[in-house]
Amino acid sequence: MTQPSPPPDIRPARSVAELLAASPLFDAPVHPSHALDFLGREGHHLFLAYADGEPVGFISGVETTHPDKGPEMLLYELGVAPAHRRLGIGRALIEALAEVARERGCRGMWVGVEPGNRAALAAYRSAGAVNEGRFAMLGWELE
User: Fold this and answer.
1) pLDDT confidence of 108, banded at 50, 70, 90?
2) 117, burial (CB in 10 Å: exposed 0-12, middle 13-18, buried 19+)
3) What torsion do the CA atoms of 108, 51, 30, 83 make, to the nearest 10 degrees?
4) Where does the record place the N-acetyltransferase domain (predicted)?
5) Is residue 2 over pLDDT 60?
6) In this predicted structure, which of 6-10, 35-39, 64-68 has the lowest mean pLDDT?
7) CA–CA–CA angle 89, 51, 39 (5° rounding)
8) Torsion region of 133: left, alpha or beta (phi above 0 gives left; psi -120 to 50 gives alpha)
9) Residue 143, SS3?
10) Residue ranges per structural domain of the chain
11) CB within 8 A of 63, min separation 6: which ones?
12) Do residues 47 and 11 lie in contact, with contact meaning Cβ atoms separated by under 8 Å?
């Protein structure tokens, strides 16, 4: 009989040092000035998940408001270290961000995800998300 995994330790990120320590979880190395800017902006949220004192996952969200919709939470990015996937860490991070969204009066939370990213889709669905099938994501490189 296998022991269930202990619940992840989820905490809001408060310092650049924390984000630098979690840098391997991001798509690219954390840039200190960008991290400081993100942490200092109202409506920007980032949670870290820890296992045995080490960062093993993160989620970031950005509040946005539109005149005809009111406040919403954009789940900007979710990342969990490969060795820690399928243990409920992604779901716990999503739930932490959703709780902040509720506390801040957001009417909903949404995320764009590649249709072939089965791991992300499974994590989002396990936390209660449904495919609304309403948009295609297009982008511009501005640099």
Assistant:
1) very high
2) exposed
3) -90
4) 8-143
5) no
6) 6-10
7) 75
8) left
9) coil
10) 13-126
11) 43, 44, 45, 71, 72, 73, 74, 101, 104, 106
12) yes
User: Token pair of 123, please?
Assistant: 């994590």
Structure token pair of residue 74: 């954009």
Written as one string, the DSSP assignment of 58-75 is EEEEEEEEETTTEEEEEE
13-126 belongs to CATH 3.40.630.30: yes
Q: What are phi and psi of 57, to 5 degrees?
A: -170, 160
- Phi then psi for residue 92, to 5 deg, are -65, -40
What DSSP designation does 28 have? S
Q: What 3-state class would DSSP assign to 33?
A: helix
Look-up of token digits 């961000």: 97
Nearest to 5 by CA among 78, 72, 80: 80
Which residue, chain included where needed, has tokens 């984000």?
Answer: 19
Question: d(Cα 112, Cα 69) in Å, to the nearest integer?
Answer: 18
